Amino acid sequence: MFPDRSICKASQVLYPTSEQELVSVVASATRNKTKMKVATRYSHSIPKLVCPEGENGLLISTKYLNKIAKVDVEARTMTVESGVTMKQLINEAAKVGLALPYAPYWWGLTIGGLMGTGAHGSTLWGKGSSVHDYVVELRIVRAAGPEEGYAKAESLNEQHEDLNAAKVSLGVLGVISQVTLKLEPLFKRSITYVAKNDSDLGDQVAAFGHAHEFADITWYPSQRKAVYRVDDRVPFNTSGNGLYDFIPFRPTPSLELAILRTTEDLQESTGDADGKCIGSKTTTNTLITAAYGLTNNGIIFTVYPVIGFQNRLQASGSCLDSLQDAKITACAWDSRVKGEFFHQTTFSISLSVAKKFIEDVQKLVQLEPKGFCGIELYNGILMRYVKASSAYLGKQEDALDIDITYYRSKDPMTPRLYEDILEEVEQLGIFKYGGLPHWGKNRNLAFEGAIKKYKNAGRFLRVKEKYDLQGLFSSTWTDQMLGLKDGVTILKDGCALEGLCICSQDSHCNPSKDYYCKPGKVYKEARVCTHLKSK
């Protein structure tokens, strides 16, 4: 379900199994001036990056571009096709004693997909936590003129200036066919989660990120609690064979998912904030007691620290491997069952303003203590660390990435409980503190004016024009994200309820009187007066 609830259509889907087949597919589409988009195996991006224009476009799936092409143990590099999943990469690297140092925590992403959106883990060490900053070479199939057969495969290494455009490309340059990553020798980590009162969170946040290599913080604002992940490398001979099977990424009985969703729908419709607060405390306490899914030996959690090999701790996603059991169990967000249905707001703010942002959020908690219980049902606010990247559309400075997941109604005209509070947080991060939106998450408003925050946006757009002069890999939506067209926000009845329209940047929103639309205009039913429980 896309942010604007539009339905994505394509005339056909093609499944190339080699770069040669991929070149032939792109050539045929270019010759016929057919719009193209790349689709990955599981497709987790929230914005409409995958939608080709109109109904006659072509989807190119990387599902069968899923082979490990080459491993060079001496050079510590691995070359993979772009449809290889994180899980595959991690496992294959470990077999030859290598490891990807930093990565997203969910392993159901493909290498091409996570590069396309700039996905990352958490660290301020080394080159940072973005996987694309460990890419030393890639091959990309792009449109070409008739003299070159309408398509060609381009090889980009670290000396090639276009690599910085291709490392985070939103899929608008062409189709990445192969990626070579620089790895490290396999190592061990030690993880301890420490829960504390959040009163000094603002003071701690920057120092904590510098102090621990794999640090992150999970914040539960209504409970005034922060859980610090104390996570560092340890000597290889340290005993321990821990495993991280993160509980929210495990297969969940579909019946349980349906009951949870029905309960939350009821709480929303009756304004039962207390019910959400009780539920969120139970959820949080269960996760903390169970160490979020860490085990000391792959079976049971007994004590901190949990020590184990990088490949067993860095990412998880066992719900993807659950049995083909007629959907008796599923990933919690699987749209084929009645389960989670949510918005995600994810942005990164400069480490230098992280303290101020946290303090602003804490002021909102004081105003409305129950206002954040809803996000705590989805494990609160995840705060990860990211470093400045050389990629033109990568992170611009060392930053704190704020990741919030929250309830979305099946009815686009129904306001959420305490919607105004979360809208305020979103606008604080993105407008007041100039946060960069995560390209693969977020509602439309997060991308309003976003491209102006990237100092090398002009360079990226020049490479885009060189690689795809006809814009066959672009759509109206990607043009809007990149500032080439107006229309990221959509003005219509109820637009503010789903983040499709916003306040102007110069009127910082006040939950009691601002209506999340441009001043001076009235959009029928777009106002969110949650205190009155009306639209």
TrEMBL record:
GO terms for molecular function: D-arabinono-1,4-lactone oxidase activity; FAD binding; L-gulonolactone oxidase activity. GO terms for cellular component: membrane. Pathway: Cofactor biosynthesis; L-ascorbate biosynthesis. GO terms for biological process: L-ascorbic acid biosynthetic process. Its EC number is 1.1.3.8. Residues 6-186 form the FAD-binding PCMH-type domain. InterPro entries: ALO_C, FAD-bd_PCMH, FAD-bd_PCMH-like_sf, FAD-bd_PCMH_sub2, FAD-linked_Oxidoreductases_BP, GULLO2-like_C, GULO_Plant, Oxid_FAD_bind_N. Keywords: Ascorbate biosynthesis, FAD, Flavoprotein, Oxidoreductase, Signal. It catalyses: L-gulono-1,4-lactone + O2 = L-ascorbate + H2O2 + H(+). Its cofactor is FAD. Pfam families: ALO (PF04030), FAD_binding_4 (PF01565), GULLO2-like_3rd (PF22906). PANTHER family: GULONOLACTONE OXIDASE (PTHR13878), L-GULONOLACTONE OXIDASE 5 (PTHR13878:SF67). Belongs to the oxygen-dependent FAD-linked oxidoreductase family. This is L-gulonolactone oxidase. It comes from Glycine soja.
